[in-house]
Amino acid sequence: MGNGFFFYNVERQVHMFDMSNNNIHNKKSNLERHFRTTHSKFDIDFPPKTEVRKKQLEKLKLEIDKQQLIFTKPVLKSKAATIASFRISHVLAKNKKSFQTGEIVKQAFLEGADALFENFKNKSEILSAINDLQLSRKTVTRRVESIGQNLVEILKQDIKECVYFSLQFDESTDITDAAQLCIFIRLVFFKF
Fold first, then answer.
1. Pairing state between β 179-188 and 13-17
2. Distance of alpha carbon 88 from alpha carbon 133, whole angstroms
3. Ramachandran region of residue 21, left (φ > 0), alpha (ψ -120 to 50) or beta?
4. Which of 174, 171, 169 is nearest to 185 (CA)?
5. What is the pTM of this model?
6. For the chain, how long is the longest CA-to-CA vector?
7. Contact 6/60 with Cβ under 8 angstroms?
8. Which H or E run includes 73?
9. Cα 6 from chain centroid (whole Å)
């Protein structure tokens, strides 16, 4: 707030709150002209440096925050569903389960949640979040590949930063005589 105007910052840009719920970001002179012509009664209804004005400005700020939440809430919900999908995919891969199991996990989640959250006020929100999980066979495959690529990048970076390393190789065959090579690497860093 400065010079009797209601300003707020969004990503390092100064904005003025418009009483008709529009946001204007412009030069100071344009903001002053807009405020004086469009909102000439604001100074009369809410005199500067009074508690009434302070409360009104807080109310307007809460309104703009609510409006912005409409856009950020779905993004946060989608991000949470993606993170959960990655975690479930990791558990499936770690336990050597079929990637189609992701769809079964989702069904089990829905059935269990329906009973677990029976008396909860936000049951529909919980079920909606579970429905948003992406656990199809192709999605789980992509998630596991992405996790694998990330681990390879981390390992490459660790090898570059280590002082010493040792390698150990072990080859074995399974029941179908398919050879499997296991590589162990031990790294030594300056910081223990």
1. unpaired
2. 10
3. left
4. 169
5. 0.57
6. 89
7. yes
8. helix 51-94
9. 30
Q: In the predicted model, what is the mean pLDDT of the chain?
A: 82
* Unique residue bearing structure tokens 């336990």: 95
**Nearest CA-CA partner of 87 in 30, 141, 144:** 144
> Within 10 Å of residue 74's Cβ, how many Cβ atoms?
11
d(C-alpha 192, C-alpha 175), whole Å: 41
HEC sequence for 76-117 = HHHHHHHHHHHHHHHHHHHCCCCCCHHHHHHHHHHHHHHHHC
Q: Where are the beta strands (DSSP E) in the chain?
A: 7-10, 13-17, 23-24, 164-173, 179-188
Distance CA 82, CA 80 (A): 5
pLDDT at position 19: 44
Q: How far apart are CA 117 and CA 125, in angstroms?
A: 10
Q: pLDDT per residue over 32-67, tens digit each?
A: 777 778 777 877 787 878 888 888 888 888 887 777
For 106, the token pair is 């989702």
> What is the structure's pLDDT at 1?
38
The structure tokens listed for 155 are: 């390992």
Q: Which of 97, 78, 77 is nearest to 88 (CA)?
A: 97
Q: What is the DSSP letter of 175?
A: T
Report helix, strand or coil for 2.
strand
